[in-house]
Amino acid sequence: MKNLRNTINSYKPFNEQEEKDKAFLLKAMDLHSDLLFRTNPWMHFSSSCWIVNPDADKVLMIYHKIYNSWAWLGGHADGEENLLKVAQKELQEESGIRHARFLSDQPFSLEVLTVDGHIKKNEYVSSHLHLNLTYLFEADEKESLILNQNETNGVLWIPVKEVENYVSEEWMMKNIYRKLLSKWGDFK
Question: What CATH number is given for 2-187 in this structure?
Answer without folding.
Answer: 3.90.79.10
